[in-house]
Amino acid sequence: MLKREIGHSGIFVNAIGLGCMGLSEFYGPAVETRDGVALLHAAIDAGVNHFDTAQLYGMGANERLLGEAFHDRRDKVVIATKFGPVRDRQTGAFLDVDGSEANMRAAIEESLQFLKTDHVDLYYLHRVDLKTPIEETVGAMAKLVDEGKVRALGLSEASADTLRRANKVHPIAALQSEYSIFSRDIEDGSLKAVDEIGASLVAYSPLGRGLLTGSYTPDHTPQKGDFRSAATQPRFETEAFRANLELVDEVKAVAAAHNAKPAQIALAWVLGRGDNVLTIPGTTKLANLESNLAGADIGLTTSERDRLNALADRVKGARYPESRSSNINA
């Protein structure tokens, strides 16, 4: 498989990892623990070694699942987790983003406990705390590296300026941001800063939250617990959704030329951006995971990339609603 280094951290992973969020929350009902563990073990057998989770996902449930799966095979996996957003432990409601050292200390200890490990390979600030200078947060995170609890640091959905300021305090190995054929807004800002500081981009939602898989029909209705609805995802609003599905036909046409699936083309497009790009598509199904991994073997022609590049400007709807945009590219 295609291997790439996370920044200059010395940590090498397969370019296509696994985003684990959907195993516990946001994309429908959480999987049963035994099924989740089985999938994670199968992922290792298939060659995946980069697994992404967060304190936020299931309020610890996702980290616990990874702990169950990896505690006896820790040497086979690179674990990334995140802190920052705070939720009400009773209701699950989102309360704030807290990048303080006190919150970070509590978060890392809980994550280590849930993950059943003594260190995290890549530790992210999940969203930028607008109340706390990034220098203060990253300075505190750097202490975890000195203490051996964390190997490398990352930021998620951070702007170019924030990345540069953070990197002056401690090397930032990765920026995690949404990036796909449909979402290219980071290219003129934070992605250039990623290149400049020698970091990696870890692209989440490379399949456009499922739109780029080609599996949706215009009459699709999200199941209970799936956050892909008009209220939380503008691109899934009825009219926008139908218009965006028409754009997927272009991806399907490129896929047909390669005897491939649209999702594989979408992943090949992301990885073709540069050698410092990794991606973490999520799935709860082994067949989809195995299919996604084949995307690393597809090479797109210049004309195919140009055809796909033209789609982003035609996508209807923002990545997030206005109510959730303040910490995006912050």
From TrEMBL:
Query: Which portions of this protein are annotated as coiled-coil regions?
Result: none
Q: Does the keyword Oxidoreductase apply?
A: yes
> Which cellular component, as a GO term, is one annotated location?
cytoplasm
InterPro entries in UniProt:
Aldo-Keto_reductase (IPR050791), NAD(P)_OxRdtase_dom_sf (IPR036812), NADP_OxRdtase_dom (IPR023210)
Q: Could you tell me the keywords of this UniProt record?
A: Oxidoreductase
Q: Which domain of life is it from?
A: Bacteria
Q: Which residues form the NADP-dependent oxidoreductase domain?
A: 16-311
Key word Oxidoreductase present: yes
The protein's name in its UniProt record = Aryl-alcohol dehydrogenase-like predicted oxidoreductase
| GO terms assigned for molecular function | oxidoreductase activity
The family database entries (PROSITE patterns) matched by this protein are listed as:
PROKAR_LIPOPROTEIN
